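Example 3.2
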Amino acid sequence: MSEHDVTRLLGAWRIGDTDARDRIIAILYPELRRLARQAFRREAPGHTLQPTALVNEAWLKLACGAVPDAVDRQHLLAMSARLMREILVDHARRSRAAKRDGGQRTTLSSLDAEPDDRTAAAIDVLALDRALGRLHLFDATKARVVELRYFGGLSIEETGDVLGQSPATVKRHWQTARIWLHDSINGGQGD
């Protein structure tokens, strides 16, 4: 299905067409699964939430909440990435509260690894979320790039499409944000 068809279906969903909503999920479900698998590549082994559950929970929040204001496929995927981040952070908070442990420290390699790098170290999602919140206060674009790349698993090009920026600009934002986040999470000068 073309990008234009998804855009048309999003418009129909906005005016209350639940069939359009159902067709969108059927079209985008494989991409949402890919995003979820990428999000889990950096999670610690033995995570109690599974990619399918993450996709289903994100879709329920998307489908049962207010109709999304996404204008096209990339924007809807970006919104899904944000929902997945929120779900993973909430899950980590609940798990940490149950265990009362300190979690894992973030390593430079875990932030340097590309989203599809299977060898990346597990990252403390709560620490990353707090650091992203601080980054957002003074550079929302860089925070959004990290969210789309890390949690959404979008490529440099896809992130550029969502943000309306060139791949070179996205790459610079990504590199700068990773360094800042590493410093911020590990007690450096990032704050």
